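Entry:
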Amino acid sequence: MIGSKKGRGMLGKKKAVLAIGLACSLLFTACSANSANSKEEASGNKNGGTSKERVTLKVEVFDRGNSPAGSTITDNYMTKFIQKNFGDPNNINMEFVPVPRSEEVEKLNVLMASGSNVPDIVFTYDPNTFNRYAKQGGLTDIGPLLEQAPNLKAFLGDEVLGYGQFQGTQFAIPAKRSNVGKYASFIRQDWLDKLNMPVPQTTEELYETLKAFKEKDPGATGGQVIPLGMTIASAQYEPLVWSFIKPVSEEQKYTLTQQLGSNDYPTLLPGFKDALQFMNKLYNEGLMSKDFGLDKDKKKLGEGVSTGKIGFFSEDDINPFYENGSNDTLLSNVPDAKLVSVDVFTNEEGKHAKPMYAPNGLYIMIPKSSERAAEAVKYLEWMTSGDNLFNLQNGIEGENYTMVDEIPVVVENPTEEALNRMYNVGDMVIISNGKQLGSMEKNLKARALQMPTKFQEQVEAAQKIANSDVIPPVLMDRPIEAQTKYGTTLLDKFNEMIVKTTMAKTEQFDSVYETMMKDYMASGGQAILDERTSVYKEMQAK
């Protein structure tokens, strides 16, 4: 989720990646042939029995180049803790193999193609990379080994494990997210108070509120008021768009949804055109950001919020409330400002429908060439057993955290030693994306307690909103190849469709929409629809 360097040498890099992909395809079979028989026979561990001799387990680790003085990404508090508490008792030497986070897919391709040098545990956030490795036969079937890992299975559950299956076989162990909520919306309560208006509860009430913000300028912006802050980033438009989607049948949900990258898009679902038409109405009435289509990095949105010009916007649930974030800056510019969390957009059923994250994070994989599949699963089983996950994620009580109402709260002003202890916790505890405390309620409470005290009430409200009336992602039985092939192109066209239909003159909306949709379908949308329809029929036939 961290960006990579661009610019110089991109053409060469693209050629290298293509070559690597071909190498992966050619070498996976060789890797499997080298290991599946002789190595399995020698170690006797493919079916779960670990070697009595001391062995080495190689585990990938993201290298972000942020190791503090005295530590390296392969030699730090976490690596020593794991070696002492898992490695030594099990006669295993833990070896961590660094992979630059900004180049994780490219470097992983190189490692997978090497066969003998690939770590025993590798991972990626990219579902297309996982699907490609599984399809090419480069991954170990983890299913039988999971039967010997009861704590791991119980921790993940069937829903999360389902994201690691390829055509019914468990080729990955997905990490578990501690929070699946995505979005909340925010409004200037002080503006409402000046206008003696209530907090809007529906889309129609929001529309009336936005008109009042524009006409009466309660923030005294001198005519620079932006009633609705908007960008072309998904956090701004998705809560609005998805609230217009109508109830659908199971068949419509599976066939008409378009997955581009890792997110579902409602391009073909009933109600999508209505959402775009509403955005067109807001734009033509001057109720939303004029140049939203150019604000891909949300910089202008942040400036508008911070300087007190924006009255309402949607965002990643707790994003405005980080220390020194947009709300902090707003208060320094407008001391009387009050930004509150709200849930406004409503669908025809009266629900505040919005997407949620998939319950999985990383795809954790064991290459087919690995001799240490049993030890790899045993490592993840250890991580989810007893107090191990808690100790890994929270550090030492009294130095890194204190317990408050059964929630570990980070110590204020910790020592440098305590800080350095936890600098890479998120990259080492690969089985979980976020802190796990046994329930979503505790997970969210702990997350809120890490935020500035003055904002915690609004953070808790935002998290509740983000987890209310959520729309789960659609999980197909097998990967849709057309989505992998056309996803990048179609995502660009989807964003272009939003911008151009929104900015069209009112009387030109229909013609612009039809033209853009025709181009979208011809550029791969139809291929995705056809393949998803075919796969759905296969699912029904089982």
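The radius of gyration is 25 Å.
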